[in-house]
Amino acid sequence: MHILVTNDDGVQAPGLLALAQEMRKLGEVTIYAPDKNWSASGHVKTMERPFRVRETRLADGSTAFMSDGAPSDCVALALLGLVQNVDLVISGINPHANIGHDVTYSGTVTAAMEGVIAGVYGIAVSLDSPDNFGELLDYSTAAIVGRRVAEKVLEDGLPKGVLLNVNVPYLLESELNGYMITRQGLRVYRDALDKRVDPRGKPYYWIGGETPTGVDEPGTDFGALRAGHVSITPLQLDLTAREAMETLQRWNWQP
User: Fold this and answer.
1) Is this model's pTM higher than 0.85 or not?
2) Please, what is the average pLDDT of the chain?
3) Domain residue spans of the chain
4) 160 pLDDT band (50/70/90 cuts)?
5) How many other CB atoms are found less than 10 A from the CB of residue 89?
6) Contact present, 31 and 2 (Cβ < 8 Å)
């Protein structure tokens, strides 16, 4: 098996290395990721400029490739021919959970989504870590979980147009309460506008606020994490709101 490993935190992020090392137990691994942090970049396709792809070395001495594109750009370039015969795209390990509406912002998730668009299996792996841990995070449990999920996908496959969004509690592997298939929960954002003034007297703005929370509901990604379960949410590329179609069809569309 040939596995493409990427992320949205940059090619030198420790979570990517931990994931790649576990993926090597399943087959050949190619690492291709952004050369900088693209967190919350969403689904990007850069069309107006060229990319520079460079080789680099990770902390364990292994070779990786990087470019100045977004995570989804990296996957697109790889699958368009930069990397040959990829069976699986796995993205992560993100240092924070990607649950609920996070999936629309997440470069981690949309990198896996880009793989599925190209007809390749896609998995996103995120760690529900405590705040302010920085580089002291232990990614070992999430890496093992990522390998187990990847192994099952490579063995049994996935429905067309579906990727897996995997979120892992910040626990030892022995402390996990198992794996749960979940639906997207409700993320509660607490964003705030932070207005400041530069030295020339002109205003500028940050999007700030407190760390988001969520609604602790059984069967959801947020609820599963709270209960110590690994959350595995199947996401589909078809975003059609089918119930809304029925409502719209009843409208009078005649002028």
Assistant:
1) yes
2) 95
3) 2-186+215-249
4) very high
5) 28
6) no
Spatial distance between the Cα atoms of 164 and 118, rounded to a whole number of angstroms:
15
Which residue, 83, 221, 242, 224, is CA-closest to 164? 221
pLDDT over 70 (residue 53): yes
Q: List the beta bridge partners of residue 205.
A: 195
Answer whether 81's CB lies under 8 Å from 32's CB.
no
* Cα gap 11→28, rounded to integer Å: 18
Closest to 38 in 3D by CA, of 91, 117, 101, 99: 91
Tell me how far CA of residue 115 lies from CA of 55, 170, 174, 186, 217, in angstroms.
21, 27, 31, 26, 30
Q: Which among 39, 49, 167, 177 is positioned nearest to 111, based on CA atoms?
A: 39
Query: CA nearest 176: which of 235, 231, 114?
Result: 231
For residue 106, give both structure tokens.
């997440």
- pLDDT tens, position by position, 179-237: 999 999 999 999 999 999 999 999 999 998 888 899 999 999 999 999 999 999 999 99
- Which CATH architecture does the domain made up of 2-186+215-249 adopt? 3-Layer(aba) Sandwich (3.40)
For 133-156, how does the pLDDT look when each residue is reduced to its tens digit (9 = 90+)?
666 899 999 999 999 999 999 999
- Position of tokens 């596995």? 3
- In angstroms, the CA 61 to CA 58 distance is 5
